[in-house]
Design goal:
Strand content: 15-25%
CATH topology of the largest domain: TIM Barrel
Strand order of the largest sheet: 6-7-9-10-11-12-13-14
Radius of gyration: 23 Å
Protein name: Cyclic diguanylate phosphodiesterase (EAL) domain protein
InterPro entries: CheY-like_superfamily, Cyclic-di-GMP_PDE-like, EAL_dom, EAL_sf, Sig_transdc_resp-reg_receiver
Keywords: Phosphoprotein
Helix content: 40-55%
Order of helices and strands: EHEHEHEHEHHEEEHHEHEHEHEHHEHEH
Structural class: alpha/beta
Number of helices: 15
GO molecular function, one term: cyclic-guanylate-specific phosphodiesterase activity
Largest sheet: 8 strands, mixed, barrel
Number of domains: 2
Length: about 400
């Protein structure tokens, strides 16, 4: 893998030199320097895109926030590490702004420089950029046509991948989320970002969901030991809940594969406002009566999450990765997560925290007594065969 190009933006010459020397100690040789944002843009115009920018916020001339906006508009920066001493709420807001602009956020380095922290943040870029078996391609081509999608469904090209969940305290497996992948004959292994909107546009979302459910349940019944990996979480969009065939298909699949309904969690994704119609509520109630868990996915980021908790029969919620990614050290995110855990406990609702990508995040959630987690630190998405093998010898991915 080609070594990342790093750009350091720091107005204080001594601090800038310290960061550059630290990068050299860690083996980074493609390093550019700038005193402030406009000078950094000039460097990028000469040398090309920066893979990683280590950016001070308070600089003379063009400050860090202006630089991030300008560089994102010109597609000159892939990822950012903040290096500043601003309050934590401003740091969180700046990193969120960068993320919204399409820049990968690696984290906050703070001041003074901590070499171990710098190395850890740099590894996040290397880890997230690496090609692992569970890492499918992201959108880079024109979306697939309706005919391609229908042929792919006919041929069984849409398959489930599995990302394990785990007990935050014991690190034992606690089931897995079923994720869609498409083994495209020409484009290779595709992630949902490459095809999900096209699948919706051609009205094949239900068919794809049922195909994934059938395959996941079949493999679970055939090869996964009960009590360890038999719990499956299936993503269902809000628009699918009003379809009466959803219940018919799920009940039929559970019966066909002799799986208890308690093995199935339906994660309702918040991609749009949930119209609480009688048919929608009926589906949620019937799922609960059947014994399934009904979960709010990405809790806290979508449409009227609190209202849904009050009015709809959810018995699980997933804390969105955008909150977990700021642990530890971000006081606001810690307070939001702690309040969510307290609320869930009082309501008798289970909680899963997603986005656990470091041991520090897991430890922070352990201190908050969060029961279940999910994230790359524990296990990346994997194929059915890989998941089956992993279950018999579950290893934490990053220990």
């Amino acid at each position: 893998m080609k070594q990342p190009a790093v750009l350091v933006i720091e107005d204080h010459p001594v601090q800038r030199l310290v960061i550059v020397r630290a990068l050299e100690m860690l083996g980074y040789t493609r390093v550019l320097q700038a005193q402030e944002g406009s000078q950094a843009l000039e460097q990028l115009a000469l040398h090309g895109v920066a893979d990683i920018v280590i950016c001070d916020v308070r600089t003379p001339g063009m400050d860090g926030t202006q630089f991030l906006r300008e560089s994102s508009q010109r597609n000159l920066v892939k990822s950012v590490i903040l290096s500043s001493d601003v309050p934590s709420d401003l740091t969180a807001a700046i990193l969120h702004m960068a993320s919204l602009s399409g820049i990968q956020v690696l984290g906050d380095l703070g001041k003074p420089l901590n070499l171990g922290r710098l190395e850890s943040l740099l590894r996040r870029y290397e880890s997230d950029s690496s090609t692992a078996p569970g890492n499918a391609q992201t959108p880079a081509e024109d979306p697939p046509s309706a005919d391609e999608i229908r042929v792919g469904l006919d041929r069984g090209e849409f398959i489930p991948y599995y990302q394990p969940k785990f007990d935050v305290r014991t690190l034992q497996p606690a089931g897995a989320e079923v994720l869609a992948r498409w083994i495209h004959p020409e484009r290779g292994l595709l992630s949902p970002g490459c095809f999900i909107e096209a699948v919706k546009d051609c009205n094949e979302l239900d068919r794809m969901t049922w195909a994934l459910a059938d395959q996941a349940m079949a493999q679970t019944a055939r090869s996964v030991p009960m009590g360890r990996g038999a719990s499956l979480a299936l993503n269902v969009e809000t628009c699918q809940l009003g379809n009466a065939q959803l219940m018919t298909h799920l009940m039929g699949a559970l019966q066909l594969h002799a799986l208890p309904a308690t093995a199935l969690t339906i994660e309702v994704t918040e991609t749009g406002p949930l119209s609480v119609q009688a048919s929608t509520l009926e589906t949620l109630v019937r799922l609960r009566l059947l014994g399934c868990t009904v979960s709010i996915d990405d809790f806290g980021t979508g449409f009227s999450s609190m209202e849904r908790l009050c009015n709809l029969p959810f018995n699980q919620l997933k804390i969105d990765a955008s909150f977990v990614s700021r642990l530890p050290g971000d006081a606001r995110s810690e307070s939001v997560i702690a309040a969510t855990l307290s609320l869930a406990e009082r309501l008798g609702i289970n909680v899963v925290a997603e986005g656990i990508e470091t041991a520090d995040r897991r430890n922070a959630l352990l201190d908050m007594r969060c029961a279940l987690g999910q994230g790359f630190w524990y296990a990346r998405p994997m194929s059915g065969d890989e998941y089956e093998s992993w279950l018999f010898n579950p290893m934490v991915a990053n220990t």
